[in-house]
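Researcher: Please translate sequence to structure tokens.
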Amino acid sequence: MSSFGSFLSSDQFQCSICLDVFNNPSSTPCGHSFCVSCINQYWDRAKVCQCPLCKRTFQKRPDLQINRTLREITEQFRSISVGGGGGGGLAREKKGGRVREGAMSDALFSELTKKLPRPQVNTSEAQGEPIPSTPPVTTPMASSVPNQSPISAASSISGPSPPPPLLSQPSGRRRFTVSGAASSQNIPICQIHQRGIMIFCRTDGECICPNCEAEEHSGHDTVTVEAAWMDKQAQLKETEQQIQEMITQRLRKIEEMRTSVADLGLAVERETAGSVCMFSELVAAIERLQAELIDTMEVNRSASEQLADSMIRQLEQEVEELRQRESALVKLSASDDHVHGIKNFPAVCNPLPAKDWSNVSVTFDLGTGAIYKSLATQVEKFQERLKSVTETGFTASSLDASPTRPQPRMRRVQEYAVDVTLDCNTAHPRLILSDDMKSVRCGERHQLLPDNMERFDRVVCVLGREAITSGRHYWEVLVGGKTDWDLGVARQSINRKGKIEVTPSNGYWFLSLRDKNKYAFRTEPSTDVHLNLRPNKIGIFVDFDRGQVSFYNVDSKIHIYTFNDTFTECIFPFFSPCTNKSGKNDSPLIITPVDKSE
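Model: Translation complete:
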């Protein structure tokens, strides 16, 4: 063996990226070491995290830490190189008055031996010679240069005699850097023959030593452990590819399931919208025909009563005349004046021009037949549509054609609920506000209120107290069974005195109800809105930045209408209960809390 210069070489402490001695070395999961700054810069420029030496790819970038053991060894090697003046990292040892070149200090060698213990099998052991009673202390170091045979050396701590030579390794084996999991592993020793386990028996699937091969595995298919591990690594790559494929399949299945859940949500929304529209149409038709039926019967009853009253009056008049004739006859028959009786006889005996009432009766027709036929027609249409839905379900085209479409963002807009109260300073004198400023109705008379600039003096309406200058806002108003109302927003600079043109160009954006079932938006001209289901509660959503005012049927969660415009100044909630119409529209408009749990 040569000097210890063959034990420590600069190649063993060299980063394969910058080709310089390690500076803050760090080890990758595959066991190779690099300067921590070099490997980070290398990965920063690469699309994938890959080891520069073995090309192993990491799906997630490893969190590298400085290898403190290798850093200490590297620093000691650097100090030795500088102190020894080159010499491959060797020290000048003075012993017995003589300076021995190419020697390593005992203290340093002991320190390196402690940090990198790796017992090796010597050459004589590989050749079948007995192992010395005292095993030598050896420290193998592997180079990071591929396809280079490792050179090993050892130093005796107590004397100048060289240690036994190390077992040579195949020259074609790849050499790795000093630190790292792969290079720091010890070669296991056979417990029976005390020789290095360096052979793999493919027949029995065991790792054995040369003696085991000769004694128990003669004629078996054997290879070196390194060759067997190379085969296993190829199998590992195949298994890794299979696992990656399984992961890809499962990720694809997860995405497919998520898509199915999303499709399910859309199907539920579509089914809800279709069913609400279909049933609301039937309910609206039934309600309309029911009201028409009641009105028709009421009209026919009134007409029949008037006809009966007229005939009764005629009969009563004829009865009165007959009673007078009867009284005259009785009086004349009782008279003893024969001349008077003869003269008045023609007057009391001539027949009266009376009407023949024998065939006269009060007949009536309720006029409900046509209404029932119309209802039967509506029911038939409903049954046909129900049959069609049973066979094909609700389609997107059928929903697009419906006058009211579902608004899937109903729950989302409710998240922008705000507390809205009424501004009493803007209320028309006929309006009566509740103490909590949450409801308003129209009274019969004007109240004595100050005529300030903010107050409406002709249109029975009131504004909300909270100004809207940005963002999104939502509130709900209970309209109940009112026949007329107006709800929406109005800008601050609107005209509040005298006659008002309630149009968007004049600063008004609201939905109106007239005569129980006539819904419209006050655009130019007015936009009619046909609702199959009469709302009990109206939701108003304002997106100031996007210039949108949207209205919702809260009970059925249906979007009614959205008006788009540009707001150039702050706006306020707008409320008008309209006149009470002699008590028919006396119900109040009530600002209700938003129930986000629905």
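Researcher: Any highlights?
Model: The CA atoms of residues 48 and 57 lie 7 Å apart.
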